[in-house]
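In the laboratory, one determines a bound structure by crystallizing the protein with its ligand and collecting diffraction data. In a computational setting the workflow is compressed into a single prediction: the sequence and the ligand go in, and a structural description comes out. We illustrate the idea with zinc ion.
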Amino acid sequence: MKFKDLSQQSVECRSFGHMWRPYTAQYFEEKLEGVRSKWRGYKVTLVCKGCGCNKHFKLSHTGDYGHPYYRYPTNYKLDHRITPDERKALKLAAIEPWISK
Ligand SMILES: [Zn+2]
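The predicted complex, in structure-token form:
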């Protein structure tokens, strides 16, 4: 995906952050040698209301937060690492539809 092909939602999320909403929270336990519970908690999925990106992470029964991973929609990821100048242009592009005339 080229910079100019990003959707407006992707541009806004990249500029100002995602709008996370809870989607699923599934209880599970990791067994140690099939007997005792080594870890228990929830597999949590959040979905961005804007771009549709998914965020997955574990949350233990005591509230410890696991390292998240993300699944991005097809119109979100660039085929190169974003440059500082592109990041600036992205922020301007994000507000462009909202500029008062
Ligand atoms: Zn988003």
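The mean pLDDT is 91. Keep in mind that any predicted model is a hypothesis to be tested, not a measurement.
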